[in-house]
Each structure stands twice: as structure tokens, then as C-alpha cells.
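Run log, item B.
One chain of 210 residues. Sequence copied directly from the ordering sheet:
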Amino acid sequence: MKRLSLVLLALAAIGYGSAAWAANAYTQGSVHLRAGPSSDYPLVTTIPGNALLNLNGCIDDWTWCDVDWEGNRGWVYGNYLYYDYQSRRVPVIEYGAQLGIGIVAFSLGDYWGRYYAGRPWFGRRDYWMHRPPPPHRPRPPPRPRPPVRPNPPPRPRPPPPRPRPPVARPPERPNPPPRPNPGDRGRPTRPDTRPAPRPSPPPVPDRPPA
């Protein structure tokens, strides 16, 4: 009996994993909320961009996720859901494994009975239950993180300006000697080589002195 109870609890956890795991997510643009994990299921409502959702879990390839928004329950395509991860928002469809999002299963009869009893398409649940399940898409590889670029080394400061060399002034020229008079015509005066005049002899008196 105890073993049977454990099995039932494990099945309940797989079928309703949304109750055990929940987180916040954001819409990337305006998205459709569907009644199942495929665009073929009826449209529940349209959610505006950058809306805050309660993320209950995703199917095992993270292509579709079970969410709550303002009293509406349904499924949103994982490429339009973004999640806060390492100080940025990343798409759930690519980072589901790194984010640790819970995996949930979809059972149309139970899911529709819980959330869509008053919806127009609920009366055709037998038709939808016998439809083939949506194709299982392969998981997209996670985007590689860009390498962290090291900070560039600081730029060297420019050298200080060189001192200007002193301006060499030409030496002062001495004042030129005074120019000679125009009469000299610039020629030096020649010495006088003529002989000096002889003194004249005393006069001879005409008469002897008395």
C-alpha cells in the first residue's frame, strides 16, 4: 500500500509539475496564448509585449511552455518567452536546460477540464483529443556566449612638451667709425714733405752805427 502511494505521488508530480515549479518570464512582443502546446490548438487570448507571466514549466524540448497571465491559463511558444539569466534576458527555447525549467506533460482531457470548461471549444474536446500530437521538434543548441574581452591597457600619456630652444640673437655690431668729410673724399691726408723755409738773414744796415 505504501509503495502504491509513492507511485501515485510520482505520477502526480510528472502530470502536474507546474504546481511544484514556477517562475517569472516575459513576452517578447505580442504573443498568442493557446489551449495546448501547438499553434493548431484554439486561441485563448493575446498577450501584449513585455508582459510578466507566471511560468509553470515547459515540455521536454522547451518549444512550448505552460503559463498564467491575468487569470488565463495556456501555452506560449518558447521562442517568445524570455527569462532573466546572468543579468540579461534570454529566450527560453534556447536556454531551457541552463535555466533549470521544470518539465511538464500535457493531457488534453485533464487540462481542458481544469481551465476551459466554459470556453466555446470545450464542447469539441473529443475531436481535439483524437488529433495526432504536434510534431516533436529537436532542441535548438544553446547560443554560445560571446567571449569576454579583456579591458584594453591604459593608453600611455603623451610626453610633456619639449622646451623651446632659446632664440639666438645676432651679436650687436659696433658703431661704424665716423665718415670723413666729403672734401677729403675718403682719402687719408698725406704728410707734407716739403722742406721748411729758411729764416731770412738779418737786414744789413746802410750805415755803420755811430
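Observations after the first pass:
- The longest strand covers residues 52-58.
- The chain has a mean pLDDT of 77.
Flagged for discussion on Thursday.
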